[in-house]
Amino acid sequence: LQREYLNRTGEEIKIEDMIYEIRGKHVMLDSDLARLYECANGTKSINLAVNRNNERFPADFYFQLTKEEYNNLKFQIETSNSNNNHGGVRKLPYVFTEQGVAMLATVLRTRVASQISVAIMRAFVKMRKYISSNLIEQKYINNLVLEDHNKIKLLEASFQKIEEKRK
User: Fold this and answer.
1) Whole-Å CA distances, 51 to 21, 37, 46, 87, 107
2) DSSP reduced 3-state for 45
3) Over the stretch 53-106, which tens digit does the pLDDT of each residue have?
4) What CA–CA distance (Å, rounded) separates 108 from 34?
5) What's the CA gap between 41 and 15, in Å, rounded?
6) Which of 92, 96, 114, 158 is most enclosed, with most CB atoms within 10 A?
7) If we measure between CA atoms, which residue out of 92, 117, 109 comes closest to residue 45?
């Protein structure tokens, strides 16, 4: 599925840009999901779907942000309260893990739910591959640094021996 999603300023948004790391998990905001799934009533539709199917949404599939997490996230994505008529969120948002997003697609009744869920799953996979490749690169870099560190130690020891011979 190749679709464009536009933010407030009319810039294209990739689904990968809607995935955040919170509590060590990659998650998506309920408001982003409501927009992607084209829920008529926004997050209210998502909350109703989750409440009607509560047994399908254990704590590791979705959770509500704390005030501190929400404030950190707002800072991270540079949102402001000025674009809300009521001066900010009235209720702290929920976030959904990859499993929660997949489950949400099965209980939502929107015309694009299955198409969007495929695109979202691909975005999560893309994020995992990106992180994995970065970890491999980081491990390689760490090994190079360690190797160089050991060479430097050998050089220092050699210089120290030369200094001792001079004395």
Assistant:
1) 24, 17, 9, 27, 11
2) helix
3) 999 999 999 999 999 999 888 877 764 443 444 445 578 999 999 889 888 888
4) 10
5) 21
6) 96
7) 109
- Choice between 62 and 141, residue whose per-residue pLDDT is larger: 62
CA atoms of 127 and 16, how far apart (whole Å): 7
Q: What is the pLDDT of residues 22-53, one digit of tens each?
A: 998 989 999 989 888 888 888 999 999 999 99
Among the listed residues 36, 31, 25, the one whose alpha carbon sits nearest the alpha carbon of residue 59: 25
Bridge partner list, 25: 22
In angstroms, the CA 45 to CA 152 distance is 61
- What was the pLDDT predicted at 60? 92
- HEC per residue, 1-14: CCCCEECCCCCEEC
Q: How many angstroms from the chain centroid is the CA of residue 136?
A: 20
The end-to-end CA distance of the chain, in Å, is 75
Q: Radius of gyration of the chain from Cα atoms?
A: 24
Rounded to an integer, what distance in angstroms lies between the CA atom of residue 107 and that of residue 4?
Answer: 24
